[in-house]
Write a structure and sequence with these properties.
The structure holds 2 protein chains of 2 kinds. In chain A, 26% of the residues lie in helices and 23% in strands. Chain A is of the alpha/beta class. In chain B, the strands form 8 sheets. Chain B has a 7-stranded mixed beta sheet with strand order 13-15-11-16-14-17-18. In chain B, strands 31-33-30-34-32-35-36 form a 7-stranded mixed beta sheet, sandwiched between helices. In chain B, strands 5-6-7-10-8-9 form a 6-stranded mixed beta sheet. Chain B starts with a strand and ends with a helix. The chains are: A alpha/beta, B alpha+beta. The interface between A and B is large, with 45 and 41 residues.
């Protein structure tokens, strides 16, 4: 069996690359971190990999708006190759700043359209916030990344611009009809609408993560790569289980490729 | 004045003493008359006048900021100790004299040398101290201050403070990877009246918000978690806020040594050079006033520094350079001056990339523009290293080379504009003898504090919890990404359930699994700071904060046998003999504690002249010593948090409670001016700390919290509300050395004490460990909504609900 190959795309201001690399490695993948300049030299390089990752951070300082500059850079210089890669069904994930990049270049929610129709805007609190939240995992989605997850999980968020807003009602309806909404901020029991701070940013319909219709591209604001080990969880835990729930997400993609 | 090659000749050879001093003041050289005269003599021997770039180079290199003249200087120290005459009972002072040739070398360094710990890999020589992590890796730690810049420009000052200390970590050895930041801040009170703000300074509110935003933006964008800190409030910090910034990094042991050889190239990487930060080193070496120039504050850009970090570590691992240092205070003049200390260097000023045109050579040379590092590159790696930086879009330019003539030579468009002897630059600084005087205050036990009303004691607990120095800093901590890199396993805010509110933690633990694969070890980080004790007794403040830093680390699972300390002194004007006296006293306390606890200091920093002058009035700070502790945890599973875990578990108090209310929060609130400041009893503390480490490793500790500000009452309250579990405490079971009242027992801030939760079935095993020390069962965790402190003897029962304690601590007015 050949090893699943993962590419973590890096640029100035990327800063969650080490832990994301580890997350895939622990799931048995061979992972490389490459600066976007390396891809510019050889645009077909994408296709040497099975999984593409846009990690968290502050690409180019989030100047103008979060993820915007990197989104434009990729779309203008590598757009065709990226679109081809995504339509081939290979898994792609964008975490936090990576999600912002995916949304701002329009690879999410619809890679065929490849146009920005949703955004991630300043949190209602107006502040950067770092905290753990509850997420409802929408079970009816066909997202390959979220299989085998329990109905409710917790992950940390750390962002200033995480308020998910679709362009209009039609976009929102499409997301719902296509079962593209995969994570929603929720309460402990998953039954109630969360208030701030459990809803950390005021997203429309408490949306924390979405995928494309085919389910191979996932974008989410929370950081599953920060919950690979149980010991990373801030509360009382059963240390008999070594791994945290975040690992399942990465394992899903690695297993999918195999 | 003649003007050759954009350099002005500074005519100094014929100047009188008065003219020399005026020259120093006019050009912000911050040099004393003796120093100016030494410069004059040097150039007299050369039979020429210096030019501006030469004199500026000397001023930067000799600045207090770079040279630490006071702490490494000669000091005549007199200590006056109050004694009661045994015959007539009158108070007189006993005089103790001591002469230091080099204060630091004879105290803090000396302790480190005497302790001679093999796991200390680098102490006091590099940009940061380094201790051993495991067989292959070390941990580097440095804490810096950025007080003067933050007073002028809170946002810019604080962000470049963080940027600067991160570069210290990048510049230690051949470069360490930063894994955590820590920030400790002292501000004036938020509600201070506008009329109480000295002319020309910012209101504390503006400073607080600016500083916190600066730290947030720089730290978050660098992707380094801010995991630990403290905030103190006192009106002596209105004009001079204190901003401590620290960074921890991981460095392979094989990358600790630097070498510089003749013929090696000087590579400047990172940010371009501009006019920001000119005279930073010298302006921070004197007091501030209304004329202090804002252009001395640098302008930061975290993304440029992040690129430098990413690219530099690649070049490090490919072994493309042999030494590195950061451009901090004094800019290139200090960085290259230091690297070329033993060789000599030739630098082409015109090759340095500029932000904009119009800079004079001396401005380029001493500018403290941010995000710049200097690398020493063997000629054979010239092309390979440039390729790395180019790929990461990092500016990298060769600006000169190392020579063997022990001279610092600067050229500008092919003309030599400076030629200085390295020996004079580094060893020519005359050492004056400073005088220091410290008068110990006679401490007096306060009158017995008797509060009979239970409700009043309850109210006091709530008032203490909402005191700005104690209350929740969640609004700050949440703005810092304290979890980026995924390695923060003991976090700054701790709770029992995501759904509920959190309480404070004692220390943070980093599990560096992404860098050191398959490790089980962790790094514990904590700090100790107290500004109130110092107002009464500098010595006891210093010993207390050292003990507090250790205590905080021990409380989460740290082992004092693998722990090291950093000192960080912020004081006023050292030319005032009383200010210097209290500094010497604090330094001595560090020596004493280091030896007593057998814990070495590995690095440190001092920031003096924290003084503001306006309309002939001087505002000086209350001296503050920050002690930062760093330690290695052998197994990250053996760590604990503050919140109570389960009802029915037993609560133990460790350590003796003494009648020590001097400088406590309780005394501040009650306006009690007398009282004994908490003392440190190292032998007692060491036994307890070693015992706790053993108990945690044996799995006997469910939760642990140190007793510090506010005493037992506050410690118990915090453990309760952060877990939403109640507690019952029998006050009569608190062990004291003498008779104490209820309030004294609850609010004394005696050092060396911990509150520990233990499962009933582990009680015997737990107590056995503490045989021979003070370990007393004082209560249990309960299932109800209240924290109860009861004394049957005094027939008093204080009962407060967890929610009222929590809302007091959350202090929404703050």
């Amino acid at each position: 069996m050949t090893k699943c190959k993962v590419l973590i795309l890096r640029t100035a201001g990327t800063n969650c690359d080490y832990e994301t690399l580890f997350a895939f490695e622990v799931c048995g993948a061979k992972v490389e971190k490459l600066h976007i300049n390396n891809i510019m030299e050889n645009k077909r390089k994408f296709f040497e990999y099975d999984i593409l990752v846009f990690p968290g951070g502050f690409s180019y300082g989030d100047d103008i708006a979060s993820g915007k500059i990197l989104a434009n850079e990729i779309k203008n210089k590598l757009g065709d190759e990226l679109r081809e890669f995504s339509l081939s069904g290979r898994p792609i994930i964008g975490i936090c700043n990576g999600f912002q990049v995916l949304v701002k270049m329009g690879l999410l929610p619809d890679p065929k359209l490849f146009k920005q129709i949703t955004t991630l805007y300043y949190n209602d609190s107006g502040k950067f916030e770092c905290r753990w939240v509850y997420l409802k995992v929408l079970q009816n989605s066909n997202c390959l990344w979220t299989k085998n997850l329990p109905k409710i999980i917790s992950l940390p968020v750390a962002h200033m611009e995480g308020k998910f807003i679709p362009k209009d009602k039609i976009v929102l309806n499409t997301l719902n009809t296509n079962k593209q909404i995969v994570f929603k901020y929720t309460t402990k029991d998953g039954e109630h609408l969360p208030n701030y701070p459990l809803d950390p940013n005021g997203s429309v319909e408490q949306i924390a993560g979405i995928c494309n219709k085919d389910g191979n591209i996932l974008g989410l604001m929370p950081h599953p790569e920060r919950f690979i080990f149980n010991i990373q969880y801030p509360f009382n835990i059963n240390l008999k289980n070594k791994y945290g729930l975040g690992k399942i997400i990465f394992q899903n993609a690695v297993d999918f490729v195999r | 004045m003649k003007n050759i090659n954009n350099c002005k000749i500074v005519e100094i050879l014929d100047l009188s003493d008065e003219q020399l001093i005026n020259l120093s003041i006019k050009n912000t050289l911050s040099l004393s008359l003796t120093e100016m005269k030494a410069i004059k003599t040097y150039f007299q021997k050369l039979n020429k006048n210096p030019n501006d770039i030469e004199i500026e180079t000397i001023a930067q290199t000799w600045s207090e900021h770079c040279k630490h003249k006071t702490l490494t200087g000669s000091i005549k120290y007199v200590e006056l100790i109050p004694v009661n005459n045994s015959k007539n009972g009158k108070l007189y002072y006993e005089k103790k004299n001591r002469i230091y040739k080099n204060l630091l070398k004879e105290t803090i360094f000396k302790a480190t040398c005497e302790l001679n710990k093999i796991w200390c890999l680098s102490t006091f020589v590099d940009n940061a101290g380094i201790i051993e992590f495991d067989a292959e890796n070390g941990v580097a730690f440095k804490v810096e201050t950025h007080n003067h810049p933050s007073a002028l420009d809170p946002y810019g000052g604080a962000s470049t403070g963080i940027g600067g200390v991160i570069r210290d970590i990048l510049g230690v050895g051949l470069g360490a990877k930063p894994i955590a930041n820590t920030d400790v801040l002292c501000f004036g009170n938020k509600n201070v009246k506008d009329s109480d703000i000295p002319k020309g300074t910012h209101h504390p509110k503006r400073i607080i918000n600016g500083v916190i935003a600066g730290i947030r933006d720089y730290g978050n964008k660098m992707g380094i978690p801010t995991v630990n800190g403290a905030v103190c409030f006192d009106n002596s910090y209105i004009a001079n806020p204190i901003v401590y910034c620290g960074t921890v990094g991981i460095i392979p042991k094989s990358k600790i040594k630097k070498t510089v050889n003749q013929g090696d190239l000087i590579l400047l990487i990172g940010g371009k050079t501009g006019r920001d930060g000119i005279h930073g080193a010298t302006f921070s070496s004197i007091y501030l006033d209304q004329k202090s120039n804002l252009s001395a504050v640098q302008i930061g850009n975290p993304i440029v520094e992040k690129k430098v970090l990413d690219a530099m570590l690649q070049a490090r691992d490919l072994e493309l350079y042999t030494a590195v240092t950061d451009c901090g205070a004094g800019g290139l003049s200090s960085a290259i001056g230091e690297l070329a200390n033993k060789t000599g260097a030739l630098v082409h000023i015109d090759k340095i990339p500029l932000k904009y045109y119009g800079l004079k050579p001396w401005e380029i040379w001493i500018s403290e523009s941010q995000e710049r590092m200097v690398l020493v590159v063997p000629k054979k790696n010239e092309n390979a290293i440039i390729k790395i930086f180019k790929k990461e879009n990092v500016e990298a330019v060769f600006i000169g080379e190392f020579t063997n003539d022990k001279k610092l030579k600067l050229s500008y468009h092919d003309e030599m504009i400076a030629n200085l002897d390295m020996d004079f630059l580094h060893n020519g600084l005359p050492k004056p003898i400073l005088s220091a005087l410290y008068t110990r205050k006679k401490e007096k036990q306060q009158k017995s504090i008797i509060i009979k009303q239970a409700s009043e004691i309850g109210k006091l607990i709530r008032i203490l919890l909402s005191d700005p120095n104690v209350c929740s800093k969640e609004w700050i901590i949440r703005q810092y990404d304290h979890e980026v890199q995924g390695q923060t396993i003991i976090k700054p805010l701790q709770g029992s359930d995501l759904n509920l509110d959190y309480g404070p933690g004692d220390a943070s633990v980093i599990f560096p699994y992404t860098i050191i694969k398959h490790t089980k070890k962790g790094i514990v980080l904590s700090n100790g700071i107290n500004i109130e004790y110092g107002k009464i007794s500098t010595y006891d403040m210093a010993t207390s904060v050292i003990e507090e830093a250790l205590r905080n680390s021990v409380a989460v699972g740290g082992n004092i046998k693998k722990m090291a300390l950093l000192d960080n002194f912020c004081w006023g004007n050292p030319n005032n003999e009383e200010v210097l006296g209290s500094l010497v006293c604090a330094v001595n306390a560090c020596y004493d504690m280091s030896k007593a606890f057998e814990i070495p200091f590995i690095s440190g920093k001092d920031s003096l002249n924290n003084e503001y002058s306006v309309n002939n009035k001087k505002y000086s700070i209350s001296p503050v010593l920050l002690i930062s502790a760093i330690g290695i945890v052998d197994n990250i599973k053996n760590t604990v948090t503050v919140p109570f875990k389960n009802p029915g578990n037993l609560i133990f108090s460790l350590g003796v409670t003494r009648n020590e209310l001097g400088g406590t929060i309780f005394s501040k609130i009650r306006n009690i001016n007398e009282g004994v400041v908490p003392k440190v009893y190292p032998n007692e503390s060491k036994k307890i700390m070693n015992g706790i480490y053993k108990a945690i490793c044996n799995g006997l500790v469910e939760s642990c919290h140190d007793c510090s500000e506010g005493g037992i009452a506050i410690a118990i309250s915090e453990m309760a509300f952060s877990s939403r579990k109640g507690a019952f405490i029998n006050i009569d079971d608190i062990v004291t050395d003498k008779n104490m009242t209820i309030s004294e027992k609850l609010f004394s801030e005696s050092n060396g004490r911990f509150i520990i939760e233990v499962k009933p079935e582990k009680e015997i095993e737990f107590i056995k460990i503490f045989n021979g020390t003070c370990c007393s069962k004082i209560g249990y965790v309960s299932n109800n909504e209240n924290v109860i402190f009861e004394s049957k003897k005094s027939m008093i029962k204080v009962q407060e609900s967890i929610s009222s304690l929590l809302s007091a601590w959350k202090n929404n007015t703050f």
